[in-house]
Each structure stands twice: as C-alpha cells, then as structure tokens.
Amino acid sequence: MAREYNPRSYALVFRKESARTSAQRSPEEEVLELIDIARFIVDTIAGKMGSDILLLDLSRVTLIADYFIIATADSERQIKAIADDLVEQLRINQGLTPLSIEGTPASGWVLVDYGSIVVHIFSEAQRNRYQLEGFWSDARTVVRIA
What we know:
By secondary structure, the chain is of the alpha+beta class. It has helices spanning 34-47, 76-94, 124-130, 132-135, and strands at 2-6, 11-16, 28-33, 51-57, 67-73, 100-104, 109-113, 117-123, 140-145.
C-alpha cells in the first residue's frame, strides 16, 4: 500500500491495489481525513493511560502542522510505552510511519512527527515547563480528555 500526501485536501491518500496483475490493476483511493487519524491517536494514547490529552487544530494558526496532540505520562516507562504503541498502532492500522521521533523518555518529552499531525508526550514537569497549550492558545481545542 503506497502512501501519498495530498496538501490540497489535507488528507492522506492510500492507494490500494487489487489482486489483479500489474497491467490490469486500477488503484482505488481511500481517503482518511487527518482529523480521523488525530482522533485515532488520541484513542491510542488514552488506551495506554495517558492523561490530560489535548487535540488542537492549528490549521488556521500556523503552517507547522494541522494538529498538535499533547499528552502527559506519569513516568519515563509510560512515555516510552505510549510512544512505542502509537507508532506501532499507526503502522498496523493506518499504514503510517512517523517522519521523525525526537526526544527520549528520560528527557520527559517525546515528539512523534507525522507531518500534519505532531504528537507531544510529556512528563508532568516538562509539560508544565514548556506550556505548549499557552503558546498555541489561538488554536481551536478539538478534544480534551482530563
């Protein structure tokens, strides 16, 4: 399954090829809206007991990304578990791999970059220190799970 980013529709387009030979194939397109992927990420983080999960719509505020997801974990071990599960679940269920992963659980902040969706997993101390919610206060809150 090949992945393409279509910047005009802000959607990830997946081309699924049928079982026919390459000469006979005509790819079908299944469009997954970014908001659906962002909500899948929120659900995945919640499933690993992440707390204070925030989904921000940045599309009208900046060109950096369309969505930021910010979550808190209770320990280094939980930060790693959330990040690892998130990467695995998106690979298995959505066919996505991150563009990059920055930070370490020991630093208290792991960033998983999917291009239009950026996920921040913080320790409570680092989240209080950087206060991304305040920095992006002009963004629309889509989901908040306390």
